[in-house]
């Protein structure tokens, strides 16, 4: 909780800090990477660095955190902290790095605000930074401790690759050494680290799309982004038998086999977490009521379609609805033309999980809220930095 001394200072300076974040951020990263160039080799994504909005996620989240402390004294934004902590642990962020980020962030703030940054303001924002940092460090230590090993990355070998949908491929890996592997939960993701053509290592997070219950197998499904840096390498250069680095599984958007009626609404490659969840529910003989809703450009573009239909067939209380922008609308898929519409799908006590592109999630989340589902029962997974949260 913010001290009584800092509270009014933060309240008064929030608008100016929030407004300056976009100019503070590039300066912060320039300073950070000048002092620690190693952070650009295997930790920070250089694609995100090129994208101004995504670059702002880290510093922006401190302003979001401060807003929260001012609006809800005594409460911390658990969902946001958990999301960041899971991302950090999948990248191997450690406690010793927090003073480094602090130094360069606050040097950038000092330069940006100049004389406007009084000692009183600097002290109040330092308090916010460390409140957030300590909350993150605590969650991150707990997450590391839950793993079956103390490694950040271990080597895994590509053993299977299967084309699915359009431009998507499932890759399955098995351990390439004898480090004990953590059993994942459906909905979790791993970091994948690989050297790019110039030798610089890059990292991406991918949701596990199947084989969840087998600790010694990790399966991810990757959509090709021809303009991206990472997916073309994994699609075109990775051969069976190749070894790359995978992190332990992280992510708190986990779906249980018991509980309130479940509505899983996805679009495009956003179906990967739900495909894993449905497969796991089916394997565990779950009797949970599940409504599976998927939107895609056309039937053939739907990745993991066979796996999902197979799981749905095994779940006694599962129903399916689909929406396609073009092409055939198969009756057995309960298909409709156009964009997803949740209006008839929502029981009042439903637990809703969303995953897909941001515009899709904005639209579907609004529909769920309008239908009377409280915000805390609407869960979502954003692929890439959560600029939605930071906004
Ligand atoms: C990502 C916040 C400290 C490394 C992020 C994200 C946020 C964030 C909001 C985006 C998460 C998402 O994808 O949705 C913070 C805050 C910190 C902090 C508030 C301090 C209080 C650190 C430290 C490191 C670090 C000490 C280690 C050097 C990273 C990396 C990413 C990340 C590598 C992924 C960014 C990318 O590749 O684009 N952090 N962070 N962070 N953070 Fe932190």
From TrEMBL:
One of its GO terms (biological process) is cellular response to nitrosative stress. Residues 1-141 form the Globin domain. It comes from the Bacteria. Pfam families: FAD_binding_6, Globin. Its cofactor is heme b. SUPFAM superfamilies: Ferredoxin reductase-like, C-terminal NADP-linked domain, Globin-like, Riboflavin synthase domain-like. Its EC number is 1.14.12.17. It catalyses: 2 nitric oxide + NADH + 2 O2 = 2 nitrate + NAD(+) + H(+); 2 nitric oxide + NADPH + 2 O2 = 2 nitrate + NADP(+) + H(+). PROSITE patterns: FAD_FR (PS51384), GLOBIN (PS01033). Residues 151-256 form the FAD-binding FR-type domain. InterPro entries: Cbr1-like_FAD-bd_dom (IPR008333), FAD-bd_FR_type (IPR017927), FNR_nucleotide-bd (IPR039261), Globin (IPR000971), Globin-like_sf (IPR009050), Globin/Proto (IPR012292), Riboflavin_synthase-like_b-brl (IPR017938). The lineage of its organism: Bacteria, Bacillati, Actinomycetota, Actinomycetes, Micrococcales. Belongs to the globin family. This is nitric oxide dioxygenase. Keywords: 2Fe-2S, Heme, Iron, Iron-sulfur, Metal-binding, NAD, NADP, Oxygen transport, Transport. One of its GO terms (molecular function) is nitric oxide dioxygenase NAD(P)H activity. PANTHER family: FLAVOHEMOPROTEIN.
């Amino acid at each position: 909780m913010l001290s009584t001394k800092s509270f009014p200072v933060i309240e008064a300076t929030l608008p100016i800090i929030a407004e300056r974040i976009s100019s503070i951020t590039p300066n912060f990263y320039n300073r950070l990477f000048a002092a620690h160039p190693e952070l650009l080799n295997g930790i920070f994504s250089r694609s995100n660095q090129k994208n101004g909005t995504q670059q702002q996620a880290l510093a922006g989240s401190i302003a979001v955190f401060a807003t929260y402390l001012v609006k809800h004294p005594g409460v911390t934004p658990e969902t946001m902290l958990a999301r960041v902590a899971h991302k950090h642990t999948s990248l191997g962020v450690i406690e010793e790095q927090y003073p480094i980020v602090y130094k360069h962030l606050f040097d950038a703030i000092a330069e940006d605000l100049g004389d406007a940054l009084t000692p009183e303001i600097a002290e109040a924002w330092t308090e916010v930074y460390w409140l957030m940092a300590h909350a993150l460090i605590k969650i991150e230590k707990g997450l590391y401790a839950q793993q079956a090993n103390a490694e950040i990355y271990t080597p895994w070998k590509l053993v299977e690759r299967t084309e699915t949908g359009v431009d998507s491929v499932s890759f399955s890996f098995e351990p390439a050494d004898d480090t004990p592997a953590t059993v994942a939960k459906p909905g979790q993701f791993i970091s994948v680290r690989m050297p790019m053509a110039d030798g610089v290592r890059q990292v991406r997070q991918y949701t596990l799309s199947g084989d969840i219950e087998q600790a010694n197998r990790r399966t991810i499904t990757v959509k090709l982004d021809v303009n991206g840096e990472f997916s073309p390498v994994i699609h075109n250069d990775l051969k069976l038998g190749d070894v790359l680095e995978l992190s332990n599984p992280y992510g708190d958007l986990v779906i249980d086999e018991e509980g309130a009626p479940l509505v899983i609404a996805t679009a495009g490659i956003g179906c990967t977490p739900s495909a894993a969840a449905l497969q796991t529910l089916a394997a565990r003989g779950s009797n949970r009521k599940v409504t599976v809703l998927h939107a895609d450009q056309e039937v053939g573009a739907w990745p993991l379609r066979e796996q999902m239909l197979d799981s749905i067939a095994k779940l006694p209380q599962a129903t399916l609805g689909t929406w396609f922008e073009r092409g055939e609308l198969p009756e057995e898929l309960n298909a409709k033309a156009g964009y997803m519409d949740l209006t008839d799908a929502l029981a009042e006590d439903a637990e809703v999980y969303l995953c897909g592109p941001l515009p899709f999630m904005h639209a579907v989340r609004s529909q769920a809220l309008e239908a009377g589902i409280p915000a805390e029962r609407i869960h979502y997974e954003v692929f890439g930095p959560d600029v939605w949260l930071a906004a």
